[in-house]
């Protein structure tokens, strides 16, 4: 059975753990929690776990996946991602990157393959290190910063007190989106997730 690689982007350490920029890592934590596994240090400079993604009809365990969070800062995510792809022999078409997206309203989800990086340093690093933009993305909306706040400052702030309760729904929904991608493919998953 072919293995998938699911990367949740974020910055390492407790200082950044609740930041909007770390929502991708939070989604991977949700997938790991569902599976009962634990992320462990991997030589590719990431924390990773081998899991089954969801359950197929008849209670059959879902496809094999490696879920991981780079241990590097966001702008150096590409090295660990390329290392994991090489180690687990995962091609770009089975790479899913979960990341925060300024251009999507908070708590909305969008799925796509390829495209630009929209100024996202984590995506830019992954594209540079893997040599392709043609990987799947689960884009988790965090909305635009208020007023004239610098987007770079906004993404490094924790979710607001009004946003935090929504995370209880957003993170499971984003984890569902990852499972949908591997179970039914991009187009069918988009039809389900984008309709919400």
Automatic annotation (TrEMBL):
Protein name: Peptidyl-tRNA hydrolase
Active site: 21 (proton acceptor)
Catalytic reactions on record: an N-acyl-L-alpha-aminoacyl-tRNA + H2O = an N-acyl-L-amino acid + a tRNA + H(+)
PROSITE patterns in UniProt: PEPT_TRNA_HYDROL_1, PEPT_TRNA_HYDROL_2
Role this protein plays: Hydrolyzes ribosome-free peptidyl-tRNAs (with 1 or more amino acids incorporated), which drop off the ribosome during protein synthesis, or as a result of ribosome stalling.
Gene3D superfamilies: Peptidyl-tRNA hydrolase (3.40.50.1470)
Subcellular localization(s) per the UniProt record: Cytoplasm
UniProt-listed Enzyme Commission number(s): 3.1.1.29
Signal peptide residue numbers: none
Gene: pth
């Amino acid at each position: 059975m072919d293995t998938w690689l699911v990367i949740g982007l974020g910055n390492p350490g407790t200082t950044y753990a609740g930041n909007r920029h770390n929502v991708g890592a939070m989604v991977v934590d949700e997938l790991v929690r569902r599976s009962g596994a634990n992320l462990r240090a991997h030589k590719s400079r990431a924390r990773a776990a081998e899991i089954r993604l969801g359950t197929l009809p008849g209670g059959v365990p879902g496809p094999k996946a490696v879920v991981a969070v780079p241990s590097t800062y966001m702008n150096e995510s590409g090295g660990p991602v390329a290392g994991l792809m090489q180690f687990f022999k995962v091609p770009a078409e089975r790479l899913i990157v979960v990341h925060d997206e300024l251009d999507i309203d908070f708590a909305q989800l969008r799925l796509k393959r390829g495209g630009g990086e929209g100024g996202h340093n984590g995506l830019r690093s992954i594209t540079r290190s893997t040599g392709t933009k043609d990987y799947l993305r689960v884009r988790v909306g965090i909305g635009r910063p208020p007023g004239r706040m610098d987007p770079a400052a906004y993404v490094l702030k924790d979710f607001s007190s009004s946003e935090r309760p929504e995370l209880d729904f957003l993170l499971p929904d984003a984890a569902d989106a990852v499972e949908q991608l591997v179970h039914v493919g991009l187009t069918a998953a988009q039809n389900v997730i984008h309709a919400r």
